[in-house]
Amino acid sequence: xxxxxxxxxxxxxxxxxxxxxxxxxxxxxxxxxxxxxxxxxxxxxxxxxxxxxxxxxxxxxxxxxxxxxxxxxxxxxxxxxxxxxxxxxxxxxxxxxxxxxxxxxxxxxxxxxxxxxxxxxxxxxxxxxxxxxxxxxxxxxxxxxxxxxxxxxxxxxxxxxxx
Length: 163
Ligand code: GDP
Ligand code: MG
What we know:
This protein is of the alpha/beta class.
């Protein structure tokens, strides 16, 4: 079995865009509105010969965005079982929100290795957000632009030692 990498984060940070980028397809499930991704989706990804299965989640969507409903959390918890790494995606443009902090605290109680990813980091507008993502406490954030395909080599560098 290929290693499994799960994408986690609050709504609208670009999880599905990153998923699509990693599997090399433009699927129709990306939208400006939160809650568009209904189901967990998985697909085959490869970066520079490193093959893994990537899983998109929508566990924190659909509900009040500033709470963590237990049943949504348990859905993501199920996804985390058997995962070899989790990409914890935040939005470098909007900056961190209380929900990012809450997801981070929850992730800390999980066994899986976490790679912090600051998405929407294209141009200079994302720089402050990338720096802020250090405060999540998971080490150096990987700056990417899922939309523009930037930072994928750095993501590879963070993933290959752990999967
Ligand atoms: P999800 O809710 O976390 O799955 O987020 P989506 O992938 O649906 O993306 C939410 C919004 O962010 C969409 O409008 C995307 O086009 C936009 N987005 C995703 N990645 C990037 C990026 O790298 N840069 C910018 N500027 N926007 C992005
Ligand atoms: Mg999505």
